[in-house]
Amino acid sequence: MNRTATTPAPKAARLFLTTVGLACLAAIGLHFGHAGAAEPAVAIPAPAQDEPASGRHTETAVFAGGCFWGVQGVFQHVKGVTNAVSGYSGGKKDTAHYEEVGTGVTGHAESVEVTFDPAQVSYGTLLQVYFSVAHNPTELNFQGPDHGSQYRSALFPLDDAQRKVATAYIAQLEAAKAFPKPIVTKVEAYKGFFPAEGYHQNFLTLNPDYPYIVYNDLPKVADLKKMFPARYADQPVLVPKVVASR
């Protein structure tokens, strides 16, 4: 099922979903017609190859792994991350709008732009979180209940160093047979990142009772805390209002 059925609704509709709707879903073990809960996290080795120390205190990386609500929510709880913005990458600026991206023909993927301090957390470590907790890299053009190329698993390296680390890590995980199925994550050319509409920003934090979040995304944050306790930050780093007002 496509997640367009779960985009933010008027207040009255959201109240229905988070009270009657959530109770019903819990009782029958379903969410929006899709059985089960979040994709299970997988314990995987750290990258054998990572970026060399650069002395920089700010770096940016872009990750796509299904619905950006959950991916953003996970990275907002990683120590060393200073910002994580939901948006679109892979297509043109003039089609970077939710309704158009939802058609699956724009080339965009729902993505998250992560700004981080490489002195505190490396790109390689962020990749480990991405592959292990944030999404399932073996699902081709879908994640959980969301289907379409806009939900694909993709990395958009901003430079050659990131590209080498990402490519080498995928090869390492494949060689180690870290997952029961082949990794389908693509390392794609970076064509720009375009922030999503304001109502998508900080969605997990602002809507913790939203059924989609409860079943698909909160378990990812719990897995981050469990599997990477030294990397977990209790307080999420939220998108500034100037970005969220788009």
Uncertain regions spanning at least 5 consecutive residues? 1-36
How many discrete domains?
1
Gyration radius from CA atoms, angstroms: 17 Å
- Give, in spatial order, the strands making up the sheet with the most strands: 9-8-3-5-4-10
Structural class: alpha+beta
In the CATH hierarchy, the third-tier topology is known as Peptide Methionine Sulfoxide Reductase, Chain A
CATH class: Alpha Beta
The secondary-structure element order is HEEEHEHEHEEEHEEHHH
Let me know the average pLDDT.
Answer: 87
- Compute the number of strand runs: 10
Shape: globular
Biggest sheet record:
6 strands, mixed
* Strand proportion: 15-25%
Straight-line N-to-C gap? 27 Å
Task: State the fourth-level CATH superfamily.
Answer: Peptide methionine sulphoxide reductase MsrA
Helix content: 25-40%
Task: List the total number of helices.
Answer: 8
Describe the structure.
The structure is a single chain. The longest helix has 18 residues, at 11-28. Strand 1 (30-31) and strand 2 (34-35) form a beta hairpin. The protein has a single domain (57-207, 220-244), classed as Peptide Methionine Sulfoxide Reductase, Chain A. Helix 2 (68-75) packs across helix 4 and helix 2 (68-75) runs parallel beside helix 7. It has helices spanning 11-28, 68-75, 98-101, 123-134, 160-175, 203-206, 211-227, 241-244; strands at 30-31, 34-35, 59-65, 81-89, 109-116, 142-143, 146-147, 153-155, 186-187, 193-195. Residues 1-36 have low confidence and may be disordered. The protein has 8 helices and 10 strands. Strands 9-8-3-5-4-10 form a 6-stranded mixed β-sheet. With 246 residues, it is an alpha+beta fold.
